[in-house]
Amino acid sequence: MLFLDVQGTLISDHDKSPIDGALELISSLNKAKIPYVVITNNTKKLDFLNYLQNLGFEIDEKAYIDPFSVLKDHLKPCKIAAFGAKEFLDSLQNLGYELDFKNPQAFLVASFDDFKFQDFANMIEYVKNGIKAIAMHEGSIYKKNSKLYPGVGSIMAMLKNTQEFEYSVIGKPSKAFYQSALKLLKLQNENASFENTLIISDDFKGDLLGAYALGMQTALVLSGKISNTQGLDTTKLNFVYDSIKDYYVSRFK
What we know:
The protein has helices at residues 22-32, 48-54, 67-74, 86-94, 117-128, 152-160, 175-188, 204-213, 244-252; strands at residues 2-4, 36-39, 64-65, 79-83, 98-99, 106-109, 132-135, 141-144, 147-150, 168-169, 198-201, 217-221, 239-241. The chain has 2 domains: 1-66 and 171-198 and 240-253, HAD superfamily/HAD-like (Rossmann fold, 3-Layer(aba) Sandwich), CATH 3.40.50.1000; 72-169, 3-Layer(aba) Sandwich (Rossmann fold), CATH 3.40.50. The relative contact order is 0.17. Helices cover 35% and strands 18% of the residues. The chain is built from 9 helices and 13 strands. Helix 1 (22-32) links the parallel strand 1 and strand 2 (36-39). The strands form 3 sheets. Strands 3-2-1-11-12-13 form a 6-stranded parallel sheet, with helices on both faces. A 5-stranded parallel sheet has the order 5-4-6-7-10, with helices on both faces. It has a two-stranded antiparallel sheet with strand order 8-9.
């Protein structure tokens, strides 16, 4: 049974095209009726599954989860302050949340490559005023246009360095998100558990460490954020592949 990351694992960070072997893997999993769930920290497109399907991925909606899928389980629609790309803010409003930067009930943070220091100052003020803090995920870095940017996890760590506070995490690597993904796996096989699930991702710190702590087997692909295992605690990795194609070939060829 599998959890499959998307960015840098199934699709390229460079041009968002399917990585060699990714389409074939999903097709083979479907034909062999091997349970899997595609798990992504997408926080831009509400229709990201449809986007992947248009790329040729034969992924059923019951085998897909992202932070938007579970956000309402953590925060009912209300007045919020949100920090991230315009697509993120638009998606939140489409889900029924009202943007209110003066009197929000919570503030949400997503990945964004154009944050201003004023944004961080506003976040700090919300923290000081006791406004509920929510990280849409806790990735440490993400890759765009061949450059690495600080992820939401790094931003929240920076905020915690200014004020001591607690925050909720919606997406990976939160236990709640992985438990929601496991429920989808159980719909395919009632015997699904963390212990018999392999997670494949390009994000060692943001995905795999949390999965390892829950008892999952971990596989790192070197086709995304990082290109080697230098500096990583490889004792927490069961497998390392150059790309998803290597896993596909080892499993189905």
